[in-house]
Amino acid sequence: MSTQAEKTFTVSRNEASKILKVSTRTLDRYIKIAKVSNKNIAGRVFLNIDEITKLAKERRSHRKIKYRQPQIHHKTPSVPTPDILIESDVNFIEKVENRIYKNLYDESQRDLKVFQQRLEGANYRVGQLESQIESSVPILEHQKLLAGHKKERYNKRVLYVLLAILLGLQPIWLILAYT
């Protein structure tokens, strides 16, 4: 595996989220759990294009998995057949039992489809909510940004003080230069 120094980080968070078809918030989660490596360059987060494409392929291949329905092998329960039961009655009972099992199976399949649709709807809604807050900054990053702004303000003040001192000393240099 290549080290982080050998990797090229050229993809922004927004571009990567479009490639992966996820929100930037989800991409931030991937970064947090180290699914994708990142690098901060000039205060912006950049990602490795190779890792993004690999992750996108993994996600697509996961979606293509087709789930087959379980096959249920019905065994006809052993029904005590007294001498009174006729063979046609036994066949009728087996048909009724098979129909009951089939109805139960069909009903469970319908319920499963309903639950899957509800789950897909909930996942879609979560994706919508994530996309609405994609421009928001996670709290830890926000605190880091605030700390960086405080340092910048302090550095600006120091530069202003030095500039004021130099401008204040300039008339003295002019007097010394002409005398």
Task: Please characterize this protein's 3D structure.
By secondary structure, the chain is mainly alpha-helical. It has 3 domains: 1-66, Multidrug-efflux Transporter Regulator, Chain: A, Domain 2 (Orthogonal Bundle), CATH 1.10.1660; 70-136; 137-179. The protein is built from 5 helices and 3 strands, in the order E-H-H-E-E-H-H-H. The protein has a 3-stranded antiparallel β-sheet with strand order 1-3-2. Strand 2 (38-41) and strand 3 form a beta hairpin. The longest helix has 46 residues, at 87-132. The model has no long low-confidence stretch (mean pLDDT 78).
Features:
single chain, about 180 residues, mainly alpha, three-stranded antiparallel sheet, about 65% helix, rod-shaped
Rg, rounded, reads: 35 Å
Give the oligomer, counting copies of the same chain as homo and different chains as hetero: single chain
Q: Helix fraction?
A: 55-70%
Count, helices: 5
Number of domains: 3
Integer average pLDDT: 78
Major sheet details: 3 strands, antiparallel
**Separation, N- and C-terminal Cα atoms:** 71 Å
Pairing-aware structural class of the strands and helices? Answer: mainly alpha
Which residues sit in consecutive blocks of at least 5 with pLDDT less than 50?
A: none
Q: Numbering strands along the chain, what is their spatial order in the largest sheet?
A: 1-3-2
- Proportion of strand residues: 5-15%
Shape: rod-shaped
How many strand units?
Answer: 3
- Give helix and strand order, one letter per element, not per position: EHHEEHHH
